[in-house]
Design brief:
Layout: H1 3-14, H2 21-30, E1 40-44, H3 49-62, E2 67-70, E3 82-84, E4 87-88, H4 91-110, H5 118-132, E5 137-141, E6 159-162, H6 170-173, H7 177-184, E7 194-197, H8 201-214, E8 218-221, E9 226-232, E10 235-241, E11 247-252, H9 258-274, H10 307-315, E12 324-327, E13 330-332, H11 338-355, E14 359-363, H12 371-380, E15 386-390, H13 400-410, E16 415-418, H14 421-431, E17 436-440, H15 443-453
Parallel strand pairs: 1-5, 1-6, 2-5, 6-7, 7-8, 13-17, 14-15, 14-17, 15-16
Antiparallel strand pairs: 2-3, 3-4, 9-10, 10-11, 12-13
Helix pairs in contact: 3-9, 3-10, 4-5, 7-8, 11-12, 12-13
EC number: 6.3.2.17
Organism: Candidatus Enterocloster excrementipullorum
Pfam families: Mur_ligase_C (PF02875), Mur_ligase_M (PF08245)
Length: 456
């Protein structure tokens, strides 16, 4: 572990208070406002935002744009949060960005500002890295929520994207789906188009209302906008309806059914960016969807994106830990809330049915998640041949024994408690030999398994 990473990991020990969006803006300005140098796509949501970022990154790269992508969390290496054309930032660039931000933090502290939180510090590093790497476009994922998130200091992104919204982080974002949607809709800005998952009527009402009030053109994406044709050779075959009236065939390199919606959101975003499409009344409830006016200077660079580049970019997307078959029969999925677990179960069921094989489950969760609801969904939504639970290495990891007790409330399936991933993985792989093993509950679990596989 380098000096920068050691320092960053210690930040939560002494800094917990978030800065306001206005204070984050002041930090960015002190850094020279590098976020104003290039257009950005700002992505929020409960589930799928990382996948949408990955799809967009791959298409931009395919179209010849140098792309900087900021996502979280990382699985193994902290530099995974800072991607240049889909690859981790160079270690030397990472260290230089850290030193730059650390220097400005000292200056801001002398002016009375508090030390940035872990996420804020990383966001500042991201825009510095992207400036040094001379990217053409940034893809920025929110950390938590949207309205009060550090990334919302982006003043005028090229587009705002809101993915699937479900119940998660209720202690911070609200105890209803509408309250959570309102927080996510906080990224919508005047004159900036918003592309969003409209599958939930309550969520759609909130987002469309926010877009209308802020004068933002809105582009809902719902089930009629795409069709899953089938799963073949570990890929989804999907048809997406385009704004101009025709359709685009996609081969998505994942088996997870939920990736069809995420890919459709990415395609719609790219359509809007490259505009124009057709005339209509933007920002008016019930009005036709339109693409951007031709005179938006910041979007001129996106005009040359073609349908072929979109299809090829989607097809070559890499995004680990999202129903990823990392070895034959071994699947890793970072679902970490009830909505994500429901989507996970739909795909796990399809895979198990198509292969006619038994399925085993390895599960773990963080203590601040709705683990009780997730466990019940997993127990009642699938017939498992065996279940293993463990305690994550994270300080927020829930004890495996507690998870086992939760499972026993809802299923008679045998549940084995393991001390950690190092013990659980080889035992579960042996138990599920020749069958299927699904690992889910947290991206932290995915990261631990990827590291453990190097030793198995």
């Amino acid at each position: 572990m380098g000096r920068a990473e050691e320092y960053l990991n210690q930040i939560p020990m002494w800094t917990k208070k978030k800065h306001s969006v206005e204070e984050v803006r002041a930090f960015l300005n002190a850094l020279g406002a590098p976020d104003r140098d290039v257009p950005a796509v700002h992505v929020a949501g409960t589930n799928g935002k990382g996948s949408v970022c990955a799809f967009l990154t791959s298409v931009f790269r395919q179209a010849g744009y140098r792309t900087g992508t900021f996502t979280s969390p990382h699985l193994v290496d902290m530099r995974e949060r800072f991607l240049i054309n889909g690859a981790m930032a160079d270690e030397a660039v990472f260290e230089r960005a850290f030193e730059t931000v650390r220097g400005i933090v000292r200056e801001m502290e002398e002016k009375g500002f508090g030390h940035p939180t872990f996420f804020e510090f990383l966001f500042y590093m991201a825009v510095i890295i992207f400036r040094e790497e001379k990217v053409d476009v940034m893809v920025i994922e929110t950390g938590l929520g949207g309205r009060l998130d550090a990334t919302n200091a982006l003043e005028h992104p090229a587009a705002s994207v809101i993915t699937s919204i479900s119940m998660d982080h209720t202690q911070y974002l609200g105890d209803t789906i509408e309250k959570i949607a309102w927080e996510k809709a906080g990224i919508i800005k005047a004159g900036v188009p918003v592309i969003f998952d409209a599958s939930n009527p309550g969520v759609r009402t909130v987002i469309e209302g926010a877009a209308f009030r802020r004068g933002a053109a809105r582009y809902p994406v719902n089930s009629p906008d795409f069709q899953v044709e089938g799963i073949r050779g570990g890929h989804l075959e999907v048809t997406v309806r385009l704004l101009r009236g025709d359709s685009l065939r996609l081969e998505i390199p994942f088996e997870a059914l939920y990736q069809a919606q995420n890919a459709a959101l990415a395609v719609r975003t790219l359509e809007v960016l490259r505009g124009p499409c057709r005339q209509g009344r933007a920002g008016v409830p019930g009005g036709e969807r339109v693409c951007l006016p031709a005179d938006r200077q910041e979007n001129e660079i996106f005009r040359r994106i073609t349908d072929r580049q979109i299809a090829e970019g989607i097809q070559t997307t890499a995004w680990p830990g999202r129903m990823e078959q990392i070895r034959p029969g071994l699947y890793l999925d970072g679902a970490n809330n009830p909505g994500g677990i429901e989507a996970f179960l739909r795909t796990a069921g399809e895979i198990a049915a198509s292969r006619r094989e038994k399925a085993y489950l390895l599960f773990s969760a963080l203590s601040d998640k709705d683990y009780g609801h997730m466990v019940r969904l997993l127990a009642e939504g699938f017939v498992w041949a065996g279940i293993g639970v463990l305690t994550l290495e994270s300080a927020r990891g829930l004890p495996g024994a507690q998870l086992a007790e939760e499972f026993k409330k809802w299923t008679a399936c045998p549940v084995t408690v393991y001390q950690g991933t190092g013990e659980a993985l080889p035992a579960m792989l042996e138990q599920a030999e020749g069958e299927l093993l699904f690992c889910t509950g947290s991206l932290y679990l995915v990261g631990e398994i990827r590291k453990a596989l190097e030793r198995v």
